[in-house]
Specification:
Helices cover 34% and strands 25% of the residues. By secondary structure, the protein is α/β, with parallel strands linked by helices.
């Protein structure tokens, strides 16, 4: 294991509340569970040397068996997540163990590419905290009570955050241990701890499966690749 490569915590312990009863972690895509596509792509990257997979506690035995049957390399551990996403990330960080660089990736983003992972490592080596993101294409509206529009922010300043999000390991671990409120992503937590976070170019194909319709889209994207 090289201390200058990425350890990746893959988070897949969510409740899939917007999937209409389907557990997106195990949703079938091209004959394999969604999570195996994510893991295979990460494991194939030359800049990744260790993977920790975080899943719901009751899914750990089945996922451990799936990982063995799939023969995916670099997976060091499958561990149980917590009630909140940040609880699951913290469990994954502890399981990963001390190192220089760590990236957090959503298990439901199976179209992650080797290029994105390489950009993550390049950027975090320079800044210590960096996230994949893409400029938004649509005009964004801020909507208040009774569906009235209350503002239209300048689109030129808006980027849609993705994963992987890469950090100095100790910086991220300290931010998690100090967090007193709930955060939507790791970058927000690190920002709140007083660190600057940069963005690097993600990929518009690096979609997160959130609704059933997303499964059709990522199936097409993965089939093309």
């Amino acid at each position: 294991m090289s201390n200058d490569l990425l350890g990746v915590v893959v988070v897949a312990a969510g409740r899939s509340s917007r999937m209409g009863g389907t557990d997106k972690t195990f949703a079938d895509i091209l004959g394999a569970p969604l999570i195996t596509h994510t893991l295979r792509r990460i494991a194939a990257s030359d800049v990744v040397d260790r993977i920790v997979l975080v899943v719901a506690a009751d899914a750990v035995p089945d996922v451990e068996m799936m990982v063995r049957d799939s023969d995916i390399p670099k997976i060091a551990e499958v561990c149980a997540g917590g009630a909140r996403r940040q609880d699951s990330v913290l469990a994954g960080l502890v399981a990963m163990g001390q190192r220089q660089w760590v990236a957090i990736h959503d298990g439901a983003r199976p179209c992650v590419s080797a290029d994105i992972l390489e950009r993550a490592l390049d950027e975090v080596r320079g800044s210590g905290a960096a996230i994949a993101a893409v400029p938004v294409k649509d005009t964004i509206k801020v909507v208040g009570d009774q569906q009235f529009i209350s503002g239209t922010p300048d689109r030129s300043t808006l980027w849609a955050a993705q994963t992987p999000q890469a950090f100095d390991y100790q910086t991220l671990l300290d931010a998690h241990r100090a967090a007193e409120v709930e955060y939507t992503d790791d970058a927000a937590m690190v920002e709140a701890a007083g660190h600057r976070v940069t963005v690097f170019w993600g990929d518009y194909h690096n979609l997160k499966v959130t609704t059933p319709e997303d499964l059709d889209i990522v199936s097409l994207l993965l089939g093309r690749r």
